[in-house]
Every structure is written in C-alpha cells, then in structure tokens.
Amino acid sequence: MSHETRAHSRLGASSAARWMACPGSVALIGDTPSRPSRAAAEGTAAHELAEACIRDGLVSVPQSRIGTVMSNGIGVTAEMVRAVSVYVRLVSDAIFWGGVARPHRIEHKFHLAAIDPELFGTNDAIVRDGYTLRVYDLKYGAGVAVSPAGNPQLLYYALGALLDAELCRGVETVELVIVQPRGAGAVIKSHTVDVLEVAEFGVALAAAVARTRAPDAPLVAGSHCKFCPVAATCPANGQAAFAAAGAAFADMAPLTLPKPSGMSAEELGLRLQQAAQLRLWLKALEKHALTEGLAGRPPVGMKVVAGHGTRVWRGDPDAALRSLCEMTDLRREDVFREEPISVAQAEALLGKKEFEAFLSLVERKPGKPTLAPTTDKRPEIDLAKSFDDVT
Predict the structure, then answer these.
(1) Cβ atoms of residues 313 and 346 within 8 Å
(2) Between 20 and 30 A from 282 (CA), which of 192, 225, 230, 377?
(3) What residues contact residue 42 under an 8 Å CB cut-off, 6+ apart?
(4) Distance (Å, rounded) from C-alpha 33 to C-alpha 25?
C-alpha cells in the first residue's frame, strides 16, 4: 500500500496534541472531508522516497531519483533529495552499524487495540541498539521546529513500537528522534525516556480517548487549533479569538489602536498572548474562506485570483547554478552555500541588468489561488481548473 492510500485514524498520532487537549474536536470534525495541502503531499512523497532507499540498502538518496514521480503524483526534486538523504543516512547508519544489521522495522504498522480500536498508526523507522530502542520520525515540513521532548506524537509512536515483543525484548529506554532537515533549528533532535514513562503515557492516552467519547466532550482553544481542519468554524476557537480582540480593543473607537509605547510590560505580554490566539483564528478563517471560494462560494465582495508567482531555477537548481558559474565570474562557493542560492540571491550578486542575460535558466512558478476584493485588477480564476497548491 502506498503512503498516499494508507488508512488514517481519527485518533491518530499526528493529531494527538490536538485531540488530547481538545476532546470535543473529534466529534466536531466528524467525517469532514479534508483536502491534502501541497506541503502535506510533498511530505508523503518524501516519506515514500525515504522508505524505498532504506529498503534498497542505500545510505543516501541518489541524484538519479530527481524527476521520479512518487505514487501520489509528486515529483522528486533536488531539494527533496538533499533533505531526505539526511534521514536515510542517519537511519541506515543506525541499522548497519559495524557491518551487521541491527533489529529494525521500516514503515511499521501498529495497532494499540488494547487501549482502543481507533488507535493505530505507522512508525517511520525503529532500530534496536542493545537496551535502547530508537524511534525515528521524519518531518519534511519547513515550518516551526518540533521538539521530541514531551511530544504526544512521538510518545504515541513509542508506545506502538514497544508492542513489538520480538524487537523490544529487554528494552529499558526509548530514544525519540526527530529528523527535520528543512525546519528551523537543529536538523536532528532526540530525547530519551524510560519504558515506564512510555507506559504512563499509555494510561494518559486511554483517559484522553475516553474524554473524546463523552457526550459533553469540551472544545478547548489553544495553540493546537493551528492544524485543526474545523478551526474556522469552531465556536471555542472563535470565542477565544473574539474575547482576545475584545479585551485588547475594549472601549476604543473604531479603528483606533493603542500605542505600544504607552503600555506597561505586563500589558504588552497580555496583548501579545491575545494576539497569538486571534492570529490563529484569522488564519483558519482565511483558509476556510478560500476553500469556500474554490468551491464556487466566495465570500461577498471577494473573488479567487492567482497569487503572485515566484521565480525558481528551471529544472535542477544545481545544474542551473553550475551553468551560471561557467558563464560569469561567480565562484562555486558564491552559489553553493548551505544550500543552492535562490534566483533573487543570484540576481543580487550579479546585478539586475547583467542577470537579464541568464533568464533562460529561470522559470516563474504559478502563484497559488488566493482571495482578493472584487475590485482587484487580477482576473478571476477559472474554478474548473484543479489547484494542487492550495494550502
């Protein structure tokens, strides 16, 4: 079964931080259909690529994989090869330490049926090293850095890993390892817990499942709302956002904002906390409004248009930059830093006028659909067209 078609649980590991904090979200979401974002689809392709390379006994992703189309239709890029290679190398080295394969599992399906039938998932990779079990989680996203310490998703995976009696006999500690090659901060992060701590998480998990089944399961707003599919229509999230706005702007004339310079340190801290909740709700609102617009139901006074496109290197960025070096005075160290420089960075190095001679190396990636006022000069998008890049 491909990564794209595998089953997903309503009480899955990836959403555990949300449903354990907000029990009512499970019933509120129900069977709401979700459209995978482009970022999620790329993550699925990256996982499929990583699995194939590790199973083939490779220690990194070969350049020849660039252009390969994965089962969900996403093509492998040079950036994906670089990022996934970090994970493949780490896991492969852990498995084949000293030339002998350690006990391991790759993309291992597990079921926490002893706790609840809806608790199941798939571990990216598990490797046993003596009395320690390493549980690896590849995060391909380029967003906020994720920590393994106290992470419900990683502890959920650890619980599933420990169910494998053959693999885990005698294990005393579990090392939770996050590999996030494109995120902010450290690329590889780990946190070690003992088996008892994982078992205690299992008790907490069972209690959290029971709370989601209660008739009066509460809706609780918080940072976990960020990835909730019904954040825009959730009454608790909306109330929290409006409460924050009301507290921040109470007793003020319309469109009158307080001067930050006149606030005390305590008030500044309070307003920033309230603003964070308000931003979460507004982001969810905008996402929901765009979904409605793409379905032919745009908000009154709005239309769906193509966003501003971005310039990218045509084909393989490495090849484009090598050509640029051959035709200019740029040196390899100028263009290949921690990662190949962008089109905008290359234009800044050469100057706008000189760079115009090399526009054949550049292409403009179409902008994502976005909402704009009906007075916007951009033409309305043909909604019969499919947009895979909507996030």
Answers:
(1) no
(2) 377
(3) 74, 80, 140
(4) 14
**How far is 17 from 378, CA to CA, in rounded Å?**
40
Distance CA 329, CA 349 (A): 10
**HEC letters along the chain:** CCCCCCCCCCCCCCCHHHHHHCCHHHHHHCCCCCCCCHHHHHHHHHHHHHHHHHHCCCCCCCHHHCCCECCCCCECCHHHHHHHHHHHHHHHHHHCHHHCCCCEEEEEEEECCCCCCCCEEEEEEEEEECCEEEEEEECCCCCCCCCCCCCHHHHHHHHHHHCCHHHHCCCCEEEEEEECCCCCCCCEEEEEEEHHHHHHHHHHHHHHHHHHHCCCCCCCCCHHHHHCCCCCCCHHHHHHHHHHHHHHHCCCCCCCCCCHHHCCHHHHHHHHHHHHHHHHHHHHHHHHHHHHHHCCCCCCCEEEEECCCEEEECCCHHHHHHHHHHHCCCCHHHHECCCECCHHHHHHHHCHHHHHHHHHHEEEECCCEEEEECCCCCCCCCCCCCCCCCC
pLDDT in tens, 101-123: 999 999 999 999 989 999 999 99
Q: How far is CA 129 from CA 1, 153, 172, in A?
A: 29, 22, 11
Cβ contact 203:163 at 8 Å:
no
What rounded mean pLDDT belongs to the chain?
Answer: 85
Whether the per-residue pLDDT at 326 is higher than 80: the answer is yes
Cα 336 to the center of its chain, rounded Å = 26
The tokens for 371 are: 């909402």
Nearest to 58 by CA among 95, 25, 33: 95
| Cβ-based neighbour number of residue 144 at 10 Å | 11
Residue 252's pLDDT band (boundaries 50, 70, 90)?
very low
Report the pLDDT value the prediction gives residue 95, as an integer from 0 to 100. Answer: 94
Contact between 307 and 368 under an 8 Å Cβ cutoff? The reply is yes
Q: What is residue 87's predicted lDDT score, i.e. its pLDDT?
A: 96
Residue 255 clears pLDDT 50, i.e. is over it = no
